[in-house]
Model the fold of this input.
Amino acid sequence: MIENNKILEIKDLRVSYHTYAGEVKAVRGVSFELKKGEALAIVGESGCGKSVTAKAIMGLIKGPQGEIKADSKILYNGNNILNYNKKQWQEYKGGECAIIFQDALTALNPTMRVGKQIMENLTVHKHMNRKTAEKEAIEMLRKVGIPEPEKRAKQYPHQFSGGMRQRVMIAIAFACDPKILICDEPTTALDVTIQGQILDIIKKLQKEHETTVIMITHDLGVVANIAQKIAVMYSGIIVEQGSSRDIFYHPRHPYMWALIESVPRLNSNNKQVLASIPGIPPDLLNPPTGCPFSTRCNYCMQICKEKMPDCSEFENGHFAYCWLHHPLAPKIDMPDYKGDL
Ligand code: SF4
Done:
């Protein structure tokens, strides 16, 4: 029996890439856990390590360049997948854990009919015969809202629009009823109306299948739509984590304040000045010893440059790494955002 229905536990995940310039420490000690059916959004700028975290969970970090450090643990139903043998990996990838990428055109096989691409997953992971798999593939296309699925199943990816291709990716991902679904910026390349439709399909299927979802995104609108929990990543570290409500309405890390200030709000009467975050994130070839946000933070103190902040815990599992919460830090007004995002 898994404690508290936990399906996934990431413990001190560290991932590096070995390049000619040196070791890039892309993920530097990430930990979180998810229960069955929960949705977590990992947010942050490009290069913060969110996609690398997703790739590690999906078993897509390849040596010799990519390296998951020895003490890292990715526990799926209590078993460390990093110790899986070849057969266990085959069952896990696609069968237990599926991924939807941003660029469906690259992810799909251009030379294979889309129906066949769904069928392939069903025959490999669910051991269906050809006829049953064909029927199921058409049913999956219908479920993701593709009109005339019998006809469309015989077509190739280039005959589909961007939004329709993303629906095909969702059909492939859900065909095997995965327990974990990773969505890596699934709507970034789509226009706004299609984005909403794609998120609605993911949410509907997630509910039906009780799938645990990890949504990787830099778009706070996407997060608000789907996730119950949010992890805010910066420079390979989770700097704040909590329920969506706490992170949106009572954020406790200056990086999250800056992210929220950069999003237009509904009650702004067109007078809101959208803030940008000056500067660039630290070089992960040589990460700073202090707070990684110190070079861009309006509240930076001397200690921030010298020492990584301790973890400060608030209510309901909400925590942040920031020296402002130390009892000896100067008191500042923490912003609270009231239902206006
Ligand atoms: Fe800013 Fe210091 Fe907090 Fe880092 S620790 S976010 S530099 S106030």
In short: Residues 253-254, 291, 293-294, 297, 299-301, 304, 309, 322-324 surround iron/sulfur cluster (CB under 6 Å). The radius of gyration is 21 Å.
